[in-house]
Write a structure and sequence with these properties.
By secondary structure, the protein is of the alpha/beta class. The protein has 15 helices and nine strands. The chain has a six-stranded parallel beta sheet, with helices on both faces. It has a three-stranded antiparallel beta sheet with strand order 5-4-6. β4 and β5 form a beta hairpin. It starts with 9 loop residues before the first helix and ends in a 23-residue tail after the last helix. The structure holds zinc ion. This is Deacetylase sirtuin-type domain-containing protein. Belongs to the sirtuin family. Class I subfamily.
Length: 364
């Protein structure tokens, strides 16, 4: 099976250096606010939106992978029903056991809250996100119940916060995290030591978590699905509900993403290179319907292949609160919920040497 990792074409990366246009804060705020002011805009977000929350984007400002030796885990490897697959699962789940808590504990940043304010005000009723961290949900969870969040936020590449076995049984990720800890007490102790010293698992430049010398993946126990055990089946083929490289997006999710673009008059794209086809094709779909598209991102994006797409290069975190204030006018101050959202959000970018070991979705 041949699976390729999505990339940004070299020609786009080369042109990006020449086309770079620096805009002022005031220009960016005004331009984005005017774009959104007429309402009914759909939003697509990507990894760039979560960087201020401590979750590192996997492409740098130049559009290439930050880790040149980046090797993703492929779907067919993780779900291989044999000893080799079991080895992949041991390696994946040990790293994920150590890597999940920082993602679980990450908090929304001002961009998430500004978008939540726009969403709650019906300016941008729907968000399609490529992120698997659940931070858009967290930003609006105080005012929207689970059903409303499900309607308003489409996780194009799934979520890290649930896992599923190969027979379709779902489980909260934290429950599985606890099971992993119970099955591997030595790693639970290692994790508690990390927490006590308030240190994150560090990573080597090749993306591997730094593990104690002599660590053997083959001794890590991947627990069996409890629902399968109740059906007298032993099954430890469990994966997070994230779309892996080489895995298809479920058709209902893909169809819903197109429906959302169809239902809106314009498309606002934030913090993504659009390297993955699942997001890029939505932009192309909007253009085919003659809908205006505005991209806010730092660094090159595939949108540059599309001459009609306007791109603004400035960090979203620096402008979006002011955009919301301009779009909503006095309501941004008078509405207590909105006003509170515009004061919320952590800004805690990841340290340079931190390469989070979460799986990278693609939607090929
Ligand atoms: Zn099961």
């Amino acid at each position: 099976m041949r699976v390729s990792v999505p990339t940004i074409p070299d020609a786009v990366l080369r042109n990006a250096q020449q086309q770079k246009v620096t805009v002022t804060h005031a220009f960016a705020v005004d331009r984005i606010a005017r774009f959104l002011a007429r309402g009914n805009a759909a939003v697509i977000t990507g990894a760039g939106v979560s960087v201020d929350s401590g979750i590192r984007a996997y492409r740098g400002h130049k559009g290439s992978y930050l880790n040149p030796n980046y090797k993703p885990i492929f779907y067919h490897e993780l779900m291989e029903p044999n000893a080799r697959g079991a080895g992949f699962r041991q390696r994946y789940w040990l790293r994920s056991y150590l890597g999940y808590p920082p993602v679980r504990d990450a908090q929304p940043n001002p961009t998430h809250f500004a978008l939540a304010a726009l969403q709650h005000s019906s300016v941008t009723p729907h968000i399609i996100t490529q992120n698997v961290d659940g931070l858009h949900h967290k930003a609006i969870s105080d005012i929207w119940d689970a059903q409303r969040r499900k309607e308003g936020i489409l996780e194009l590449h799934g979520t890290l916060h649930r896992v599923k076995c190969s027979h379709g049984h779902e489980m909260e990720r934290q429950k599985f995290q606890d099971m992993l800890g119970e099955a591997n007490p030595q790693w639970k102790a290692f994790m508690e030591e990390l927490e006590r010293t308030n240190s994150r698992p560090r990573t080597n430049p090749d993306g591997d978590v730094v593990l104690p010398a002599g660590t053997r993946y083959d001794q890590f126990i991947v627990p069996e699905c409890p629902s399968c055990l109740l059906e007298n089946r032993r099954n430890s083929m469990i994966k997070p509900e994230v779309i892996f490289f080489g895995e298809s997006i479920p058709s209902e999710v893909r169809d819903r993403s197109f429906d959302i673009v169809d239902q809106h008059d314009r498309l606002f794209v934030i913090g993504t290179t659009l390297a993955t086809f699942s997001a890029f094709r939505l932009v192309k779909h909007a253009i085919q319907q003659h809908k205006p598209v505005l991209v806010l991102n730092v660094g090159p994006t595939r949108a540059r292949e599309l001459a009609v797409v306007e791109t603004i290069e400035i960090p979203a975190g620096a402008v979006l609160r002011d955009v919301v204030k301009q779009v909503l006018g006095s309501a941004a101050e008078k509405n207590r919920t909105i006003a509170q959202m515009l004061e919320s959000g952590v800004v805690r970018p990841p340290p340079d040497d931190y390469d989070d070991p979460i799986p990278r979705p693609t939607g090929l």
